[in-house]
Task: structure prediction
Amino acid sequence: MTIVLYRTILYGKEVASTKTYGGFLISQIKQLQGRAFEKMLKDSDVDAFNGAQGRILYVLWENESLTISEIGRLTSLAKTTLTSMLDRMEEAGLVKRKPDTENRRQIIITITDKAKEYREAYDKVSEQMNALFYQGFSKAEVTEFEDKLKRIIANLEFRQEGI
Result:
């Protein structure tokens, strides 16, 4: 793969380089977005869970119940991280664990009525975050950007499967 020489502005300095900064920029976006989202949740009086736990709730709001493996795949959270987060969420009354009747080795995670009460407020915060995230972007730019991010995710998932 050829990396094309390009000019970029990084921290106010114009730099001519063959380096790419995608990974660094994505990490920086993740940190800034996480802090902004946490503040938006707090400002909206959603204090029963944090942003990372909200990702888990989101996939459960969409699916009602999932295995831990399915939640991990849909959120890209590692199983060890997911297990401890689910422990805290279960203690808070947001999720329940139950054995899978068809496969005793599987645990099914279900969403509680308490967690369902937060869906509307969480969706509003998500809409606010999207508005901030894509401020000044055209619809075509958003589509193109998200398509490229999906390609990066596919590349990383493919690499992870080969490990």
